[in-house]
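Schema walk-through. Below, the input block comes first and the output block second. Nothing else is stored per chain. Lengths vary across the set, and this one has 146 residues.
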Amino acid sequence: MNDFAHPLHHAHAYRLRRVARLLRRQLDRSLEGFDAGLSSAQFFVMMRLHEADGRIQGELVDPDLDDRANITRLVDALVARNLVVRRRDIEDRRRQRVFLTDAGHALLDGLVPRVVALREQLFGRFAAEDLAALERVLDGLEADLR
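--- output ---
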C-alpha cells in the first residue's frame, strides 16, 4: 500500500521528528526549571566538552546536522557567561580550542545528575530489550541516511 495512503500522524519519519522535537522542548523546559539559563543546544555543546575538553571549535559541529553556523553563536553565548573559554591551538594558531571553565564544570556537575534523572524518568519505563530494539532501528536509519 502507498505510504501516502495513511494519515501523516502514522508516518514513521513524521513521528520521529515529532518525538525529537518534543524531547528537545522537554529538555529546554527542564533546563529552564533548573534555572541554568541554558538552551538544549548550549547544554549539548557543554556535554561534548565534558566528554573531551579542549576540542577545536569546529569539532563541536555535528557534521550530520550541518550546524556549523550555530556553533559560533552558541560558543559566544557560553563565553559571555564564563562557562567556556577559547584558546588558540598551540600547533595551529589559526584554530581555537574550547574549554569548560570552572564555572562551566560546576554548572554541569549540578545539571548532569538532574538530566540523567529526567532521562531515567522518560526511558526507565521501557524494557531493556525495547530500548535495545530502538537503538538498532535508529542505528540502521542513521547508517542508511549518511
